Amino acid sequence: MEQQFRAWLRYSLVFGFYISPTPNASKKSAQANSLSPTNQRFTCSLQRLKKLYLYVLLPWLCVLYMNGLASRKPIPGTMLSWTVATLFFSSQALSNILMAAEGIWRQQQHETFLRLLHEIEFSLRLRLRLDIKLDVFLPRVRQLLRFQLWLSAICVLIFVYNFIKLQYVGYFWYSIWFAIAMRLRLIQLLIYVCVLRHYMRCLCLKLQQLVAYRTAPSQQLLDVNYDKLQTLAYLLAIKDIYDLLYKAFELLNAFAGWSLFSIIFCYMLDYGCTLYWALLSWEGYLERRNYYVACFWWLLPMTIIIWHLCYLCYNCKQLDRLIASMLCRIIVAGSSQSMCAYRMLLQQFSTQLQLQCIEVTARNFFTLNIRLIMSICTSIATYLVIVIQFLNI
């Protein structure tokens, strides 16, 4: 899984999301040591060029933003729309600067996160003897990735076809890079959370077998090794894998928290502005009435990505609570020394799950879940009501 991610992330360098580590970083791989001196020098030079590109990307984004501000002047009679469009354009530029900054200064957390995914997969296979069914899961992930990319590309092309005919385009052509980068960043995080949810489901499957053995020993399955399932080492393996999952979510929040916050904030502004223009077009305030047609194709992929990401994050939190509830159902009988150690570990694990929870947050400003979607809808509705009141004055 880790190698699959690195292959996909190779193209993220263009937008500054990720840069592959140097061969001399932390733990040297056998592949890096087997390279000839010439190849090693070439690899190090390539790494320096990649990092140089990221450092050049930051001022280039600032220049692109300043050029957009200098090129677009307010149109008489549209001061409110120009102010809102400028605020939205500024938030898009800030989001891209934060994403590029995370790619540079949060590279180590990102790299540790990818290694943790490999360690979780390795632990599930070897320590729990669990078939995580990557041959089935990986095609689904690729299908999800292709669906999100093709949907975004097709909808953007239809939007541009309808949008270029309109009388006011604002900062659109200056912000097209910003919009594409933010959407790809969300798709990247969507794939990460999807993989983590799959690993949590695999852990829940093994824990369900343990609960079934402890609560109903008469209902045993033939293909489960219950002698190993009841050991202290097996429960410790489950706890260690959960700790790895929790650390992976913490790293995800660390290297992508600020970009998540800025992107969600931008999308709230985008929803408000787009729906406002669509409402004006629908009511006949504008010369052309096809604003709402273009707005639909712009909002459709954005809505699907945000809803899917929030749903996956909510699902991960539900799985975390399911693990906690299953641990509380485990019954340990006997008073031998091994059973006392088993009971102590079980109590420690249950207490740990009660004190901490797995969730995806935007630097603790908000948590990505289903409630966030309701909060976004409420904020957008409030914004539209206020703007329409200004329109009627």
DSSP summary: helix tally: 12
Q: What's the alpha carbon Rg, rounded to whole Å?
A: 25 Å
Structural category: mainly alpha
Q: What does the largest sheet look like?
A: none
Provide mean pLDDT, rounded.
82
Q: Please, how many domains? A: 1
Give helix % range. Answer: over 70%
What's the end-to-end separation, in Å? 58 Å
One letter per element, helices H and strands E, the order comes to HHHHHHHHHHHH
Proportion of residues in β-strands: under 5%
| Poorly predicted regions | 23-33
In total, the number of strands is 0
- What gross morphology would you assign? globular
Transmembrane segments: 52-70, 82-105, 147-164, 176-196, 255-279, 291-314, 372-391
Membrane topology: Multi-pass membrane protein
Family: Belongs to the insect chemoreceptor superfamily. Gustatory receptor (GR) family.
Function: Gustatory receptor which mediates acceptance or avoidance behavior, depending on its substrates.
Provide a brief overview of the structure.
The protein is mainly alpha-helical.
Question: Could you please describe the fold and organization of this structure?
Answer:
The chain is an all-alpha fold and 393 residues long. The chain has one domain (2-392). It contains twelve helices and no strands. The protein has helices at 2-9, 30-33, 37-71, 79-105, 107-126, 134-163, 172-215, 226-229, 232-283, 291-329, 337-355, 370-392. Helix 6 runs antiparallel to helix 7. The longest helix has 52 residues, at 232-283. The radius of gyration is 25 Å and the shape is globular. The relative contact order is 0.10.
